[in-house]
Amino acid sequence: MRRTSKLTRVAVGVASIALAATACGGTSSDSGSDGGGETKGLAIAYDIGGKGDQSFNDAAYAGLQKAQKEFKYKTADIEPTEGETNADKEQRLASLAKQGYNPVIGVGFAYGPAMEAVAKKYPDTTFGIVDSVVEGDNVASLVFAEEQASYLAGVAAAKATKSNTVGFIGGVDIPLIHKFEAGYKQGVQDASGGKVKVLSQYLTQTAEEGGFSSPDKGKAAAEGQIEKNADVLYQAAGLSGQGVIEAAAKAKVWAIGVDSDQYEQAALSAYKGYILTSALKDVGGAVYALAKSVEDGKPLTGTQTFDLKVNGVGLSESNPEFAKIPGLTDAVAKAKEGIIDGSIKVKTE
Q1: N or C: which end of the chain has fewer CB within 10 A?
Q2: Are 203 and 243 in contact (CB under 8 A)?
Q3: What residues pair up with 127 in beta bridges, in sequence order?
């Protein structure tokens, strides 16, 4: 029988730490000293876009940094390669487990098939996967209520728009990103009484086509929506989202970030004045929580759900302009309360 649980607040708040120090890079790296026989702890294998995306992968890296600092052990983080296969992912995860890292986490749903295969071969290693559910006695599936954070983003967009047209740009046309779109659309409609139009676009049909890793594609899509009068653009597109934010800033309209608080990202500082808010997803908290459970000798397994109730998702308020828009703060607070008490049921598709 699989266990499904909602994690406690031990996991919360990691995504905001240390992201400014994250550097772009295409090679694997180890954190910690290289003493012989040193205990090896958490290892993560990045999703498409890799470290430096200022979003999803960087949030996972923040969790790794927190674990390394607290537990004083050796960690590893490894980049993906362009055009890689499931066999490549299997080899990467197996190599980390064979070296003695524990836990080993695949950042992103694309690691699903590889995780299922490798976890069986290394039963004494705890594995984790972000954004997917994989069956296995030694696997923790770290999933999020993205639709809830997106609903709040939709409420914010409805309150901020002046043109009554807002946009959604998804990286890849897959069920995971549909959750972002569904929640956002519902939030916009509920907050505006159906008066605000939502333009939706997906950059690619598959991840291999670059939907999560092509800022130029994000920029072009954003420019197209801006031409159609959209003045608030929400992107769930990984590295491609940087292009959306750039286009929004150039046109002096609002962008809404995703996963991490993108207003606070150093690499996006030139555009921060136009990042209204971000739909937060505490990937770093999930990564840290799994590492801590292993360190405590009580490894988490089964499906671990991060939602508004445990602050696993949320909406940032870092931009001072957020509080200046009439009715926005109160509307978001009311929506959050409704989602948590169950009076608002957020759609996932």
Answers
A1: N
A2: no
A3: 104, 139
